[in-house]
């Protein structure tokens, strides 16, 4: 019998659960039985209890290998259910019910914060997603007037009634000063947002003015900044929107995220990006010369056919670092768990349709199962269009879209302004300050890349690169009237930075920057300093353009990020930078034709955020929406596809124009011409027109002048995006 010892179950540690602290509510449970629409059934919860126990003791630092941990039971009022998947009834999806709000948890990891809150005595506010949504749901739909706030506390001159303390009278006296509303009044307006504090925990005074223009979610900060710019002639302020819920909860996270982003290799997929992916890659992906396709190849050299590619959105990135070798083979990691070293990819649903159930089809996969979506033609070449997974066309639909992210400064001289930001979404990719990006040749259209029905590859490689120094949303002709539904006459995205080329005869071709200073070859040391990526000198000699000064381009000129040379080899078997030029331009042309969110004559969709662009209803199993958080009743009433269910009727999700005030008020802005803008439509004078920020004098202001000079010479602004209401 001793020989069977190695097969004995490990010692089990049972963790007790105090039901007295539970807030679970059985009234939120779904109705079970075959007669119900979704065939809800109670599901055994042993696996969940084991996972939760392991996560719990790991968080406490008490985990011991060789032991098995399990919760005695789920907290009272919580129960695990499953139901048939809307798109494929053969599969069943699990949901944990019991949260008082009616919201559900789809994974043990999502329930862990609430369990932690319950098991630690419910002392601090719970940080689980449903609890945060309940808190955020208190945000009023419109600002209450002073009379309404006074009325809610009791009528009459004394206004001191039942349940009213003397402290409330002190609050009234503090509120009498116009424009000096304090914390209590702030809470009435912003739905119990925490008051900002400094490093010592002291409250920071927040400016407030009763004359500010308002939206349903608080102050209209963009109109407020324009009013200030109009009154003072010019403006240069850091963006701090304390009464904006999204800014309050995201600005610190975004600052940390973009700081870390500069330290990562550029070839690693980023959260929110679109990628080509496959559930499983047998062997490694390699180019098959006879069929001229990319196929899977086993270790013994046997060709296994093309992968079943689909398009997806990156919702989680791995904790462990990736190497170049991860691109084409499975490598040994410290933590063998795929959730630690894999990317969570969710299949992309139709961005303009109602059925969002594809989001439930996700998997954690290694990097070798992923390829950049910009080069989709390279990898699906050889497969018939009708055999493509539907998600590929879903991704093509959003390739002509952009959105700025992480706004930092509002700078301008009346009537023009810029909103500086840390990043910009262009099609499939997120581009950030310090990234190196590839620029398409000036004036190139998709038809120009094909000769004799084949993609034409000119020699030398015509793609230049830019190291991003600044990203900004350009507002031309800001509206003076705060009640005007439009924000400005013209709105466009600008990206500025130093421009480099690998072609020593680059000046013999058209130079759209308006600067024909001789090219200068970078020394190896200068090359290392110029690029944030490593080993860029391995591409060969680099030449700096424009005498080392910044150039500016619109987002329409950007192909995508420039990867490290070794990554290019591993991904595409080439060190040319135009490997996806036909693929990207063809995808944008398709997007212009099928994305119904773009009015006729408009070539780009300007989104408020990534989830709006992709039309996502949920990510990482969490329901998301760019407006206020909806209650369970809202979802039921609207008939929206929640938690992967398939909608059977029209829904409010088609109203994807529900955006922030910045985008909503900008939707009426057009360029100077009602016709389509391109380098062929704009005169040289218009292309070189300067934006007047010339009164600046400080160091930061001189940087703005440099940006102005770059923008003034930016005949790369092929298509100043026309953005107007349908």
Automatic annotation (TrEMBL):
InterPro entries: Clr2 (IPR038986), Clr2_N (IPR031915), Tscrpt-silencing_Clr2_C (IPR018839). Residues 142-210, 666-726 are annotated as: Disordered. One of its GO terms (cellular component) is mating-type region heterochromatin. Residues 420-564 form the Cryptic loci regulator 2 C-terminal domain. Residues 69-131 form the Cryptic loci regulator 2 N-terminal domain. Pfam families: Clr2, Clr2_transil. Residues 679-697 have a biased composition (Basic and acidic residues). One of its GO terms (biological process) is silent mating-type cassette heterochromatin formation. Residues 698-709 have a biased composition (Acidic residues). This is Cryptic loci regulator 2 N-terminal domain-containing protein.
């Amino acid at each position: 019998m001793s020989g069977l010892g190695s097969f004995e179950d490990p010692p089990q540690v049972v963790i007790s659960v105090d039901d007295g602290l539970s807030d679970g509510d059985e009234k939120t449970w779904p109705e079970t039985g075959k007669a119900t629409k979704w065939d809800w059934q109670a599901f055994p919860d042993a696996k969940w209890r084991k996972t939760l126990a392991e996560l719990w003791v790991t968080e406490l630092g008490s985990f011991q290998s060789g032991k098995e941990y399990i919760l005695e039971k789920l907290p009272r009022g919580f129960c695990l259910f499953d139901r048939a998947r809307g798109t494929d009834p053969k599969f069943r999806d699990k949901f944990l019910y019991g949260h008082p709000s009616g919201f559900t948890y789809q994974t043990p990891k999502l329930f862990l914060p609430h369990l932690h809150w319950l098991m630690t005595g419910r002392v601090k506010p719970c940080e689980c997603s449903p609890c945060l949504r309940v808190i955020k749901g208190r945000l009023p739909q419109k600002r209450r007037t002073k009379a309404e706030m006074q009325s809610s506390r009791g009528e009459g001159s004394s206004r001191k009634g039942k349940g009213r303390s003397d402290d409330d009278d002190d609050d009234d006296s503090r509120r009498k000063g116009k424009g000096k509303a304090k914390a209590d009044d702030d809470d009435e307006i912003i739905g119990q947002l925490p008051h900002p504090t400094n490093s010592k925990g002291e409250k920071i005074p927040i400016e407030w003015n009763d004359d500010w223009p308002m939206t349903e979610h608080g102050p209209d900060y963009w109109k407020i900044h324009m009013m200030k710019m109009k009154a003072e002639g010019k403006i240069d302020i850091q963006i701090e929107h304390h009464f904006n819920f999204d800014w309050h909860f995201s600005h610190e996270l975004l600052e940390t995220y973009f700081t870390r982003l500069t330290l990562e290799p550029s070839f690693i997929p980023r959260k929110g990006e679109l990628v080509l992916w496959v559930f499983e890659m047998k062997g490694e992906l390699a180019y098959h010369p006879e069929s001229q396709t990319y196929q899977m190849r086993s270790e013994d050299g046997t060709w296994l056919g093309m992968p079943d590619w689909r398009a997806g959105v990156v919702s989680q990135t791995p904790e462990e670092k990736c190497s170049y070798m991860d691109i084409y083979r499975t490598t040994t990691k410290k933590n063998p768990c795929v959730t630690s070293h894999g990317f969570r990819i969710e299949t992309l649903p139709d961005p303009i349709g109602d059925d969002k159930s594809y989001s439930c089809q996700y998997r954690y996969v290694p990097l070798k199962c992923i390829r950049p979506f910009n080069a989709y033609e390279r990898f699906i070449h050889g497969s018939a269009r009708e055999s493509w997974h539907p998600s590929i066309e879903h991704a093509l639909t959003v390739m002509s879209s952009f959105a700025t992210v992480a706004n930092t400064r509002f700078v301008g001289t009346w009537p023009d302004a810029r909103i500086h930001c840390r990043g910009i979404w262009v099609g499939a990719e997120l581009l950030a300050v310090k990234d190196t990006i590839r620029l398409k040749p000036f004036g190139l259209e998709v038809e120009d890349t094909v000769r004799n029905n084949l993609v034409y590859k000119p020699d030398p490689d015509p793609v230049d690169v830019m190291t991003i120094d600044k990203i900004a949303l350009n507002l031309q002709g800001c509206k003076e009237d705060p009640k005007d539904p439009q924000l400005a006459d013209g709105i466009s995205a600008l990206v500025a930075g130093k421009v480099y080329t690998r072609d020593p005869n680059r000046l013999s071709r058209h130079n759209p920057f308006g600067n024909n200073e001789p090219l200068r070859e970078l020394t190896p040391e200068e090359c290392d300093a110029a690029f944030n990526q490593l080993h860029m000198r391995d591409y060969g000699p680099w030449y700096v353009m424009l005498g080392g000064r910044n150039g500016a381009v619109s987002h329409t000129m950007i192909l995508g990020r420039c990867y490290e040379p070794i990554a290019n080899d591993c991904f595409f078997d080439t060190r040319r930078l135009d490997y996806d030029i036909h693929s990207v331009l063809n995808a944008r042309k398709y997007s212009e034709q099928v994305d119904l969110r773009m009015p006729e004559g408009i070539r780009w969709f300007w989104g408020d955020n990534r989830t709006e662009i992709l039309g996502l209803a949920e990510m990482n199993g969490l329901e998301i929406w760019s407006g206020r958080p909806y209650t369970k009743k809202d979802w039921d009433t609207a008939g929206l596809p929640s938690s992967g269910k398939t909608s059977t009727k029209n829904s409010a999700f088609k109203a994807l124009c529900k955006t922030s005030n910045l985008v909503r008020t900008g939707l009426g802005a057009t360029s100077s011409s009602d016709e389509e803008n391109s380098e062929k439509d704009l005169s040289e004078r218009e292309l070189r027109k300067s934006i007047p920020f010339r009164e600046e004098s400080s160091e930061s202001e001189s940087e703005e002048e440099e940006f102005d000079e770059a923008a003034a010479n930016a005949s790369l602004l092929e298509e100043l995006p026309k953005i107007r209401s349908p």
